[in-house]
Design goal:
By secondary structure, this protein is of the alpha/beta class. It folds into 2 domains: 129 residues, Aldehyde Dehydrogenase, Chain A, domain 1 (3-Layer(aba) Sandwich), CATH 3.40.605; 159 residues, Aldehyde Dehydrogenase, Chain A, domain 2, CATH 3.40.309. 36% of the residues lie in helices and 19% in strands. The strands form 4 sheets. It has a 6-stranded mixed β-sheet, sandwiched between helices. Strands 4-3-2-5-6 form a 5-stranded parallel β-sheet, sandwiched between helices. Strand 3, helix 5 and strand 4 form a beta-alpha-beta unit. The longest helix has 21 residues. It is globular.
Length: 401
């Protein structure tokens, strides 16, 4: 599959760009390599677990292809048959990948893609008695509708509502301000509708960061993130609803109070501001003091933390969102168990690496490798590969909290 995808990488990239369903081919190839290895090792390393059967993967209309593949590939690697219900933007590349997988030798019926414009189309498919597990990736609103529609069907449902999550971007006075400004600009303008970063800048460096950020953005040109086709689609849906007797309560966005976040004066205030949110997807911490970074990372209620960097990801990195951002763990070995069930021939085993829900913290650290003594405050990592070094610049450590 990796070879076939490499041959058609340009085609996949162009289709994703046209459909605005971001998924760089190198990232997709890395996902394929990681889960292909687990497909070969599953029987040897997980003998007490068996596939669930038929897994339904549902994506919202603004869900990217990469987010879908994070669900689809591990389900296939664990031996399940997968039905994918993509959103409008990710449907064409999903259909293309299904054809490429079939050309690479994937058995018929292992991967199926169903398309539809109905918001509850995924729930209608989930009502089939052959579906044994449903997993959703996208925005919170459609995830709630799916859970309500499938309630009482007797099928397990997991949700990863990562789109629209508000994540804290904490900058301490000991941080490299120029690097933090570059990361702010990168994170704001490269993630389309996916993550909203909330700046929590320590009071002593707030004016310096704001002035440099204003200077950096003064020469930038911003284009509209919404296409004309999307605008016409929304207007047509609203007009149709009004013609059928619906009352338009809010004509623009949900009622929100956008106001400046008060600058924290200490680590405890920064943590309090960061945790005062219904979301718990990720956080970015900027400081050159490693002890302060690790203490803050353990205190924020999120699934993954980037230190002196932002938006890093790797297939071996498990992400367990907190609060309203999700109810499952995706990525790594820990993310495989949602697509498995205990074998009936033996007593129910306990996954050796599966932490309690919301109890896994993944930390990415950019900079020189930290000395082992600086990690003594963290619990013993549960992962067999607790650290991942890339050119002595990026390290990863996992801890159950």
């Amino acid at each position: 599959m990796v070879g076939v995808l490499g041959q058609h990488a340009v085609c996949v990239s162009e289709v994703c760009d046209v459909c605005e369903a971001a998924c760089p081919p190198p990232s997709l190839i890395r996902l394929l390599q990681f889960y292909s290895s687990w497909a070969q090792l599953r029987d040897a390393l997980l003998p007490s677990w068996t596939p669930r059967g038929v897994v339904l993967v549902v994506g919202s209309d603004d869900c990217s292809l990469h987010q879908l593949m994070v669900k689809v590939l591990p389900a296939l690697a664990m031996g399940n048959s997968v039905i994918v219900v993509p959103g409008l933007s990710s449907a064409p590349p999903a259909l293309l990948l299904a054809e490429l997988f079939s050309a690479a030798g994937l058995p018929a019926g292992a991967l199926n893609v169903l398309t539809g414009s109905d918001a509850l189309f995924g729930a209608k498919v989930a009502a089939n008695q052959n579906i044994s597990y449903v997993t959703f990736s996208g925005n919170k609103q459609e995830g709630v509708l799916l859970c309500e529609a499938t309630a009482g069907l007797g099928v397990s449902v997991s949700v990863s509502s990562i789109l629209g999550a508000r994540c804290p971007f904490i900058v301490f006075e000991s941080a490299d301000i120029d690097s933090a400004v570059d990361a702010i600009v990168q994170s704001v303008f490269t993630k389309r509708r996916e993550v909203h970063w909330v700046l929590c800048v320590q009071e002593s460096v707030q004016e310096r960061l704001v002035s440099r950020l204003r200077l950096r953005m003064s020469g930038m040109k911003s284009l509209s993130l919404r296409s004309e086709e999307e605008r016409r689609l929304v207007e047509a849906a609203v007009q149709e609803a009004e013609q059928q007797g619906a009352t338009l309560v809010q004509s623009c966005s949900p009622p929100l109070l956008w106001s400046p976040v008060p600058p924290p004066r200490s680590n405890s205030e920064a943590v309090a501001l960061a945790n005062h949110s219904p979301h718990g997807l990720a956080a970015s911490i900027w400081t050159e003091e490693l002890t302060l970074a690790l203490e803050t990372a353990k205190s924020v209620c999120v699934g993954s933390v980037c230190v002196n960097c932002v938006s890093l990801s790797d297939p071996s990195l498990p992400v367990s969102p907190h609060k309203e951002s999700g109810s499952c763990t995706d990525g790594g070995q820990e993310g495989l168990y949602q697509f498995l069930r205990p074998s009936s021939s033996s007593s129910p085993p306990s996954p050796p690496l599966l932490p309690p829900l919301g109890g896994l913290l993944s930390v990415w650290i950019c900079g020189p490798p930290p000395p082992p003594s600086s990690l003594q405050g963290l619990p013993v990592p549960r992962s067999p590969s607790p650290s991942l070094w890339g050119g002595s610049r990026v390290s990863r450590c996992q801890a159950a909290v």
